[in-house]
Design goal:
Layout lengths: L1 E3 H4 L8 E3 L2 H23 L12 H6 L5 H19 L3 H12 L4 H8 L3 H23 L1
Antiparallel strand pairs: 1-2
């Protein structure tokens, strides 16, 4: 069978006829039918919008550009958190750091330190309360 490439590709300005197998033409028609059916379903269900509408929203959400002011604030806040954490007891500091910064579970910390898990939970909880009070004083 012969097909016109001008019908398939927009960059052709004149008719270009090529000979292709019947199976390929049937597959192309099947694809066109599936595409038409999809467009009809989208129209009927009013599914016109996409999260990726090329309006920059998705790109902006994925790749946030930090201003120098935001970077300064983050660095300052990180410094204040480390200052406040240094005022905790060594045990609380070590356990909070292991749990929140290294991602260890409280059970794993208890096994490493060979203590009861309840002691680790209590130490982390009291350390976080003290940390909260210290940061409230700094941030006010």
């Amino acid at each position: 069978m012969k097909i016109n490439l001008r019908d398939l590709y927009s960059f052709y300005t004149t008719d270009v006829w090529v000979e292709v197998d019947k199976e390929i033409v049937e597959e192309m028609h099947r694809f066109d039918n599936l595409d038409s059916a999809y467009r009809l379903r989208a129209y009927r269900h009013r599914a016109y919008y996409s999260l990726d509408a090329n309006d920059g929203i998705e790109h902006q959400a994925l790749f946030q550009i930090c201003s120098s002011e935001m970077e300064f604030e983050e660095a300052w806040l990180r410094q204040e958190i480390y200052k406040a954490m240094s005022q905790l007891s060594k045990k609380s500091f070590r356990r909070i750091y292991a749990h929140y910064f290294l991602g260890l579970s409280k059970v794993a910390i208890a096994q490493i330190e060979k203590v009861d898990e309840r002691a680790v939970r209590k130490s982390i909880s009291s350390g976080l309360k003290k940390l909260s009070r210290l940061l409230d004083k700094i941030l006010d």
